[in-house]
Amino acid sequence: MQDFLENIIHKGESKVVSLIYKQKLLLCPSLFLFFSFVLLSFSLSISLPLSIESLAYQQESSLGNNTSLLSSLHQQNQSLVNTQPSLSSHPLIFSQTPTSPLLDHDYDNDFMVYSKILNISNNTSTSVFPAIAASGNNVHIVWMDGSPGNFDVFYKRSTDGGGTFEDIINLSNTTEHSTGISIATSQKNVYVVWTEMDSSFNSEVFYKRSTDGGGTFGEADKLSPNPASGAFVSASGNNLFVVWQEKSSNYRTHDVFYKRSTDGGGTFEDIINLSNNPGDSRGASVAVENNRVYVVWEDDSQGNNDVFYKRSTDGGNVFSFPVNLSNNTEQSTIPSVAASRNNVYVVWNEEDDLYNREVFYKRSTDGGNTFPYFMNLSKNPSNSFDPSVGTERNMVYVLWYDTAPGNSEIGLSISSDGGFTFAIPDNLSNSPWFSGQPDLATSITGDSNNVYAVWSDLPGDNKREDIFFISQMMNKFVNGTS
């Protein structure tokens, strides 16, 4: 996840931005959540060279423990939220609205059921930036939680498909700030990576694994030898793939680095610089399918932010030359990638000249060799942010948050034909507050395709973000393909 600040839309927002900038981006997560809904992407060419990067990518920012400043910023955030102009004139792009109790509806003649929405964190502290992984009926959720006084990596698991969740485990449990979390699972192994940031803004990538399905975790290991951030992890069998960003030798730009384990995360091989160009490369995502590894990231080496892509067909030993997937003059950011059989799916944020953000999508049906299929999935006059893509069998799921319903809601668009067409998004959050920072995971149980979604939201009187969860099960997979 990465959200940029570029254009100050309302006069009141500039005051909050000024406070943040003066405090070296000492930032309240509540305010960050608000900015990610109403502010747009960063460009070096604009007159205000200031960015608030996603905590998942940050290396220079401090999350801080200045309680008085956080409280002040949070109060200003609430006042700004209360004075936002109405977006009701925009089209309501979301169709079905899951509610509690269970809602079921027909989808291409297949029976689809949404669960109740669960509050996973459910505390009075700030809980933000969730990530999720799933395998069968096992669901694993991690997030940043401020309960200890700093931000730590909290973890919960479910062994019944998200029906119930066990107690929280503090995975990082340090006095530093733990940010930029990613999680993956394969067989009985669960892998978590995150960025550990000290009071001097130094950040490193750390890693923990469980070999008993998330029941217990081993000691934390440091993966990056140099200052690094924005880690993302993917796994298949005993193969584990981690990508992150490090500052280049000029200390002004970043490169995307990659590390692999072939023994279930017991040991790791040498680091590879995947981007290795004079531009700024960051925000990498990785997916694996059989022996193919796919990596995407955003890169400004051609003058604007584009989505670059590399693949390996030998399990991550050797990678192809980079391909520019977006290849236009707009700002393309926050890519996500998923793969199933010979199909590869990539989504990202595209910002046009009017600072409107859309969710763009490309598909390959030949194992990532070519990407001839392109689509604007959101296509509305509001702003659509932070897309994530997942797939099982012939189903493709794209999740993002969107301001079209009037505030900001979590939308899930589903394809049942391998990503050729997509349904109108379902509104998963259906909240009067601001829902954002979504992530999704998929799994298979018998004949059912399952998708699980998490996001952060302001739960009414709590006035601090919590992590919310919903699941959806389709009782038979579409088109009979497996």
Q: Can you give me a brief rundown of this structure?
A:
By secondary structure, the protein is mainly beta.
Can you walk me through this structure?
- With 482 residues, this protein is mainly beta.
- It folds into two domains: 11-82, no CATH class; 103-480, Neuraminidase, CATH 2.120.10.10.
- The protein has three helices and 30 strands.
- The chain has helices at 11-22, 29-38, 67-82, and strands at 103-107, 110-114, 118-119, 127-135, 138-145, 152-158, 169-170, 177-186, 189-197, 203-210, 221-222, 228-236, 239-247, 254-261, 272-273, 281-289, 292-299, 306-312, 323-324, 331-340, 343-351, 357-364, 373-376, 384-392, 395-402, 409-415, 426-427, 436-445, 448-457, 466-474.
- Strands 1, 2, 3, 28, 29 and 30 form a six-stranded antiparallel β-sheet that branches.
- α1 (11-22) packs antiparallel against α3 and α2 packs parallel to α3 (67-82).
- The longest helix is centred in the N-terminal third of the chain and has 16 residues, at 67-82.
- The radius of gyration is 20 Å and the shape is globular.
- The relative contact order is 0.14.
- The model is unreliable at 1-110 and 477-482 (pLDDT under 50).
